Amino acid sequence: MLTHLFIRNYVLIDGLELDLSPGLTIITGETGAGKSILLGAIGLLLGQRSESRVLFSNDTKCIIEGTFDISGYKLEPLFAAEELDYSAVTIIRREITPTGKSRAFINDTPVTLDLLRRITGQLVDIHSQHDSILLGNGAVQVELLDAFAGNEQKLTGYRKAYEAYRKAEESLARLKEEAGHIRKEHDYNLFLWQELAAADLQAGEIEALENELGILENASEIKSRFHGMHQLLDGQEISVLSLLNEASQMAGQVNRLVPAYEALFQRLGNTLLELKDLTSEIEDIAENVEVNEERISRVSERLDLLYLLLKKHHSEEIPELTEIRDQLRQKIDKFENLDAELREAAQHMESARALMLEAGKILSQARREAAPRFENLVTGIARELGITHAVFTVALSDAGVPGGSGLNRIEFLFSANKGLAPQPLKAVASGGEFSRLMLAFKYVVAGKKQLPTLIFDEIDSGISGEIARKMGEILKQMGRRHQLIAITHLHQIAAFGNEHLYVYKDDSSDTTVSKIKRLSDGERVQELAQMIGGRNPSESVIANARELLEKSL
């Protein structure tokens, strides 16, 4: 239940604080005084989109805050599921900055608008004239019947099963499409894989082969140069090694005389050993390097193959070709397992479909069982509201193709005239009949839901007189089970309120502002009299208003 409403800097409202009570609260006021503004502020609190132009003053932010008593409505699991702190007294706040930025809070925890709507959807239901128009919409009709039947859990179960079926169906469709491509490409993929597999790719092979080919193609020059190096180092009477060996002997002689030159002697000895190893390695190269035309041909052919494969697959290195080879192998394996995979996906889809149909049958049965009671209650209230020959029926048929709301096609049929068969509601109901039917729906559905607060915006459209009085009685009854807030232009309805709020414009300062006040009993009589007889009601009209109020309370 909404216990307190705070509004600051919203449209024509500079600042407003309002305590709200259980039961039926009536809101009246002159056209343009700000009743719709008040509803707009509550709408923002419930998660509607905002704009910076809603600000009364562009110098400060807009704040709308509602305090809700939600004890007894078993909302703890919902708060826990959304990771919100639960409190029996919950405060919901919406802020809009001059730049248009919007923020929402539940118990001071920032939340998204989507989460805000999910939470407030369990707290407040607003009905406007637009909702009466939507009454002809099939989705709204399904929602109303399910709400009356208490099908929330059955509908949730069906939707989960339906979503699982849709995913399985989409997965099978994707696999079939992929299978078509795989089948078309299989022969070519197999050829490419065989070509790469036969190449026996080795990482680093190209660099090694290029080095080898460079040696083979220059073997004569390399052999000659290395022979020359060996001759200089050790192939002549006076060679580098012989001279270095002689220098080492001299250093040894000095070292025996003066040990202080031991380090120099050791370094010279190490150099001699290293040069001997180097000379030996040069000699081996000079002896082993040979001109081998056959090997040149084989290496060239191998490099040509590797270069061709790199170019063909738009690659730069052997590891890339290896990865492509492995991917081709996966596609080939997938082709070989394709039929089994398709069978498995089809079986999964059929299993999901069976579960969906089972959940759908349970939901359909619940709807069929609830429909007669729903028809009788709505028809009865419609007749009470002056549609004397009203006949309301619910047509349930097989939808043919399962949908997100079940296996049924649901259509509300209505007739207001004796002897005429019921027709689709949107085709036969007038504006006033829509209003009365919507109240009937809200009345029978509200009794099935633990909805703390209901708000009606001019549900009295298109009615008057005794019908309006009867509508007031029904609103009064609903107010005994729910907090009910009703905006009305009809005195017959206004008289039934447990409390009466009056919205008016205040022009006493430089800027017009909207204000609201709670009327005393005397002020209520005066307001009802003005609603009956205009701005200056006569004494008889005031007496009539007083009598109307006394009878309605």
Give a short overview.
The protein has 553 residues and is of the alpha/beta class. It is built from 19 helices and 15 strands.
Radius of gyration: 45 Å
- Tell me which CATH architecture of the domain at 1-132 and 434-518 applies here: 3-Layer(aba) Sandwich
| 3D shape | elongated
CATH class of the domain at 1-132 and 434-518: Alpha Beta
Largest sheet: 6 strands, antiparallel
Taking the alpha carbons of the first and last residues, their distance comes to 22 Å
CATH fold name of the domain at 1-132 and 434-518: Rossmann fold
Structural class: alpha/beta
The strand line-up of the biggest sheet is 2-1-4-5-6-7
What's the CATH H-level homologous superfamily of the domain at 1-132 and 434-518?
P-loop containing nucleotide triphosphate hydrolases
Total DSSP E strands: 15
